[in-house]
Structures are given as structure tokens and as C-alpha cells.
Amino acid sequence: MTRTGKFLAGVFVALIAVAALFPSLLAPGSPLAVHPAEAFESPSLRHPFGTDESGRDIYTRVVHGTADSLTIGLAATGLGMGIAVVLGIITAFAPRWIDSVILRGLEVLYAIPTLLMALIIIAFTGPGTTPAIIAVGLSTAPGYARLIRTHLRTLVNSEMFDAATVLGHSTWRKVRNHLVPNTLTTLLALVTLGIGQAVIWASALSFLGLGTPPPAPEWGAMLASGRTYLHFAWWMTVFPGLAIVTVAAGATLLGRSVTRRST
Amino acid sequence: MSQAAVEVKNLSVSFPGHGKSVIEAVKNVSFKLTPGKALGIVGESGSGKSVTARALLGLAGGQVTADVLNILGTDARKLPDAQWRELRGGKVAMILQDALNSLDPLRPIHREIADALPLARKARKHAAVEALRRVEMPNPTVRADQRSPQLSGGMRQRALIAQAMIGNPAVVVADEATTALDTRLTRLVLDQLHELTTQGIALAIISHDLAQIAQVADEIIVMRHGEIVEAGLTDQILERPSHDYTKQLLAAVPAGVPRFVPLAREVSQGATPQAGLPRSEASRKATDELAVEVTGLSKTFGDHVAVDDVSLSIGKGATLGLVGESGSGKTTTARMILGLTAPDTGTVHIFGEQFTPAKEIERRALRDRIGAIYQDPLASFDPRYSVSQILINALSQGTTSRARQYRKRAEELLETVELDSSVLSRYPRELSGGQRQRLAIARALAPEPDILILDEPVSALDVSVQATVLDLLDRIQLETATSYLFITHDLAVVEHMSDTIAVMTNGQLVETGIAEQILNHPRHTYTQELMAAAPTWGINRAS
Q: Among A80, A170, B406, B452, which is disulfide-ready with A140 (CB 3.0 to 4.6 Å)?
């Protein structure tokens, strides 16, 4: 990344962090405050992103929605990655037959598209924020697990590892000196890339009414409620949509640069 | 004397470098290619030999200038792309180095060979089979339908030669066509190339290996830093080299040089601090004590018997050369001796103590006594570690101590391998191939081992760099009485380095004995074949 690129990325991350942790700093009003008299107002100075059918300020709702969308994204990625690390370590180091069993299982799960899998899980758990996290987390785990397994296998069979063995280093030291540091950079890149994806999937679930329930300001849910009025109140869908795109694209770009730096 | 097929006068190729600078890859190079003759272009990596060769096909890239660049009567200096393509497809052909990557693995080789011919499909395939027959591909009709992964390395290289020959070229450029092959295949390919010249083709053969080129070339030009340092008839270059660099290259070839005689002769005053060191058989500390004793090692992978009942021993301070072609089981044997691969049966003893079979924890006490050096040192270093971290990691048993004593030891190790301590803060990927191998040696020496397992340690190096590394290994052995297991496919290297030689093929040890006896009076037919295929130097090396 160029210097300007790095600067912009920093500003972007800071902005997202503030919006998620202290939304009132950027948007002092309440995201749930209803003003029926001001319904369907187009973007103006008073309401930069316009208002929705109940007269709620879209800008305030988008800012306050950051926390929700990001929590789902982070928690889901964390959950998926956690499961994946455990499975990855087991498959990489366990006896061959355990590896094959888990691997075949993962391949079956991998064959089901992520969103479809999330829908199946929601069908069991019922809609809500926590079920959405679990659904997205579980659905992304197989992909991560396979990547981590391959990565660990490659490292363990590498000449670098052999060289340490020949020098008489204990397994623990080999893991600490070579395995963990070389895996962490890869994981970091995966996680950053994954958050963007998870935000999109979480929003998709909410859009379908299976994630965070209304009236909480969640971007996917806002998209869904704006859809009905799309032909005359475009701002109700465009701004939450832009928020999703920005965060997902931002996370992906950051992930890319982490990947490039670590290789 | 017939008309020259290719005439090049004052060819220069330059590339844009960093910022506004210009890198001159080739400077004022002149030569001629004559029908029925082979011109050898010798040089080390970065000498500009490949760029020169590629300029003959309009593939050099960069800025090409020349007073004369005459290819088969065409002035090729300002040739448009379309006309270059015409020349390349038909009259000028190139045989590439990497047969594995130059053939599409998804297409049968007859299509790879003959697709460019303006013929009907059946006729094209027929032509491909004919071409394969001409390069003596076994079973050409069957092989033509196979894809490159189904062929051996030598067959692939032959397919590439067939591909080059299909358009009946008048000029053939072979760029390192034998570099990746082992001794017998190299011989075959060199014979094929020689055959081309007898058919009246003008051949340019490019290699870093003077010994190989000398087998085929009628004339040789020696390149260095983009310039021709010496040109002449092959015999003249080999027997009466006039330029210092050529002499240095010739001296660096290990074939026929007795043990412990240095190969790298710095012609101009060099920085190698090796003067005054005893270099003779007499000063060796070799004793009868056995350093390594291997009995009955076997290993099977699935259905494939990789190593079959191998027994060998290495005396203290002595070198056992393990020779064999790729796939003969050399590396698996080395890995079993190092305790990296568990053998199915067999034992390894190190100074009388059992090393294999054993648990890794029991083995650890002996680990300090045996070290290893690999063909690709870069892969054996953690990419996140700097040179000093690599050495300290090795010295400190993997703790990440920053203790001063380690730093001092690290500097001493670098001194031992003749590396400047300024490389301490650098990363292996920033070092040259020779420096990396020195670093690998330094790391292996960290625990002060009594045994080093060297798996193709110099195969990836240029001849003159190889010479300095071999000299270094010699010096270390003389000073510390370290035992070497020297694994290589290069007979010249093994001849120079070994006390005893073991020959391996198809997982079995077919012959073991004193080096001199194996080299001069091989008993097993496989060894005899191997020796016959080795390049012969019939030249006077006394100078």
C-alpha cells in the first residue's frame, strides 16, 4: 500500500471503530426515535441520509447499526476460526484415519454453499442475532479448517521443520519458533478477509428476517424494510447498502494487504 | 566453409533498471553460427548468455542494438513481430531448459509437438510420431498420445527437442537443455544435439557447465558480465585458455582433481583466507573408528520400494559419496539416517550408539553429533528469520536468547564459512545461492557435529561457486575430522570429494568400494554405464 493508502485505511478503521463503540459521538440522536410527521424525507442537511417510514433518521440508524453488524461479523468469524483452528490442528497432527474422516466430513459441508448452510442452521435454531452468529460461524468453519490444515501440514513437512529436528530442537520449540508465528500471519489475513464476508452474510440473514429482529438498526434489516418503498424512497436502501459495501470492501482490502505483507 | 547461418556483430541488450538507470545485460557480443557446427556459450548466472540466445529469436526483451544481426539472410534488427514469429516457428527453433513447465500437462505430447504445422490433423500426428522417432523416443506411437506428466524427465526433454525439430529448422538454440537432467540423460540429450549438427543444423548450445558444452561444441565463447571474455575453438579453450576467467572456470571443474586440492583459484588477488592451511592427505585425522553404521535399511511407500536393504558405513573424518540418479532412493536413505523418516526395517548407529530405531526424545542426545545440509537451503530457513536469528536459534537449541555469547559464536561460524559478519542482519532471501549454502553450512556446524549429511549441496550452484563451497567443505573436514555423507548425482563432484563411493539405483546399493576403484574399475553393469556416460575431459589439466 502507498502512504496515502495506509493513511486512508487508518482513518477508515478509526471511523468504523468509533461508530461501533461510541455511536453517539457521530450521531447524537436515538436510532429508535420515531417522528411520524417527518416520514420519508429525502436526504437534507437535517437528515443527511433521509428518514424512513416512521420518520427515523437513516444516518443515525446506519451509524448505530455498525456495532450490530460488526459484532455479528467479528463473532461469527471468531467462532468459525476457533472451530477451524481446532479441526485444523486435529487433522494436521492426528493419525491418518482421523484426518481422513474429518476431512471427508468437511468436504461434504464444504459442498453446501455457505448461505444455504446458514439457512439450514437457522431452521433449527430460529431467527435472532445469536443464531445468525452461530449460523455464519459454523458455515464458514469448514473452509477455514481446510486452509489451516493444509498450512500446518506444509509447515510440518517443510525442510525448515526438518532442519530444526536435525538440530535437535524439541517439538515445543519447533511449534513456538516456526509453527505459531508462521501460522499467525496467515490466520490474521484470513480473519480480516473473513470479517468482510461475515458482515455480508449476517446482513443477508437479517435481510431475510432471520437475523437481528426489527426495530434494532441492523443494516440487512434496514435494507429489507426499505425494499417496499424503493420506488420513491431510494435512500432507505442505498445508504445501509453502502455501509455494508464499505465495511466489506474495507475489510477485504485490509486483508489483502496483510496477505501481501506476510508472503 | 559454408555461409554463416547467423551473424551477430556488437550485439547489446539493455533493460531499464531501478529509476532511470540502465542495466546492460549484454555488451558488444559478436559471433557466428555455421550450418553443421555447434557454438557453445558458457557463462554463470547473470553472464548474459541466455539473453544473448534469446536475442536470436527476438525474445530478448529490453533494448536490442547491433551492428549486424543477420539471421538466415534476414536483417533482424528491425524485424516486426509478425516476421519474428515466422522465423521462430520454422527456421529458428529453441529448446528450453525446463521440460516440466514447457509442456502443457493437459495435452498429449503429439499435439504439443506438431500443433503449429500447417497440415491436416492426421498428418500432424504422423509428423509428431516421426519427430519422436528421430529423437529416439522409445515407443514413439504410444508416447505420442501420452501427456507430459506420464513421461520421465529425459523423455520430456526429448519431446522438447522433437518439438524444436518439427519445422525443420536451420538454426537451433538449446538453452541449458541438460541442466535438470542426471548423468545418463544428459549424455543422451547431448548425443541428440550432436546429431543435429551432423544433419547440417547450426546449433547454439548455452550452459553454465563447461564440461557438458565441450562434449558437443566446435567453438566456445565464454561470457561474463554480459561480455565475451574469450572465444575460440573448443580444444584451444580447454587446453590453452588465455583469459584468467576461463582458467578459473576450468580449474573449478572438479573432475579429475585429487582430494583436498583446492578448486577455486582466485586469479586476481582474492579474499579467500585459505593460504597456509595444510591441504594434504597426510594431515587428515581420519581413523578407523566408525562414525555412521547403517544396516539393512528398507522403506516402502505404498507399492513403491524406495530403499531396499541398504547397508553402509562411514569412517571418522572420511567421506562416503552416495551416487545415483533421481528417484534412486538417495534422499530417502539420507532422511532415514537423519531420523526424519522412520525405516520399515534396519538400524542406524552413530559412534556405536543406536540412533534408529529410537524415540525422538532418546535420539536428542545424539542429535548434536549429526547435521544436515540440503540442496535448497532457502527452504530450510524460516523466512521470518534474519541470518543472526537463524544462527542463534541453532546455537541456543531453539531458545530465542539474545545472549552475547551466541552472537559471538555466530560471528565465528560465519568466519568459518568465509562469510562477512555484515550479513548478520540480512535475510537469507537477500543472499546469493553460494552465500545461502555457506549459511546452511554454518548453521549445520553450530552444534559442532561429527557427521554431516550433505544432500546435493552444490547441485544448484554455478561451477565456480560450487568450487568455493567444495573447498570450504574440504577445509572443514581437514580441520575438524567431520565425517561426510555426500549425496550427489554429479560424478565429477563425487570423484573429487569421496574416499569411498556407494552407487545406488532403484533403491538398492549395487556397488560400494574405494573411490578410485569404483571410478576406474566399476564391477556392476549399472556403475559401468554410469561411468561411461560421464563427460570425459581428455585435456591436460596440469597448467
A: A80
